[in-house]
Amino acid sequence: MKKLTPLENLRESPDSGYTIIEALMAMVVVSVLMISIAPVLVFATGTRLQARRVELATQAAKTYIDGVRSGAIPVATISGTTITPIIETTVLAQTDDRNTFKVNAPSNLGLSCSGDGYCQTPASLYCVNLDDTAGCSSNSVKDMIIQAYRSIPDAATTDPRQGYLLGVRVYRAGAFKSGVTLVADPQAQQQSTITGGIGNISVPVVQMTTEIGTSSGASKSGFQNLCDRVGCQ
């Protein structure tokens, strides 16, 4: 039988594996890499969710505007000669700068919306239910709340059939949680689609303005009404 020399005894077996130290070093390297890319993953996920939220809010705003244009969504109740506004109104005279067309942010004194449509409290807000629970709740991460407002030529003229400028702001329902102060003048800002977190819930997700033309029962033609509101040369 052949005797092994001392060098042959020290030769490693072809079946030998990594040592514990090598395994620990590999784990440390992987951990460092994961920690390095974690912020990028969080940022990418937050941005994707916010982009989807902005998309849904835009759809909600456009659907509301289409409903107002078609008459399916009222902005005031009309009973004979009595006109009671549902949404907020603000005077916008012909000589006024249209950039001044805005109202204050909603007061966060509690939200009660038992179903789709205008809320019970505040009554001027409109609920867009996007989850499986009826109505809108401040605990929902999907529901949207629309704050709509329209222009009137003067305090005595509130007939929506005459045409007006309509403003729409879409807030997340979660913005109406206790302790959240909605931005008082969000006309100049809205939520960015780029965010690494949940975004600033105190500002609107989306906001837009549009012209609503005259409807059946208006005392003036659409062109005359537009001239009265914006002027015609």
Question: How is this structure best summarized?
Answer:
This protein has about 230 residues and is an alpha+beta fold. About 30% of the residues lie in helices and about 20% in strands. The strands form 2 sheets. Strands 3, 4, 5, 6, 7 and 8 form a 6-stranded mixed sheet that branches. It has a two-stranded antiparallel ribbon with strand order 1-2.
Our Rg estimate from Cα atoms comes to 30 Å
- Helix and strand string, N-terminal first? HHEEEEEEEEH
Would you report the number of β strands? 8
Please state the overall shape, judged from the principal axes of the Cα atoms. elongated
Largest sheet: 6 strands, mixed
Give the strand content.
Answer: 15-25%
The overall pLDDT average reads 80
Number of helices: 3
Number of domains: 1
Q: Please state the structural category.
A: alpha+beta
- Rounded to the nearest angstrom, the distance between the terminal CA atoms is 117 Å
Relative helix content:
25-40%
Q: Stretches where pLDDT falls below 50 for ≥5 residues? A: none
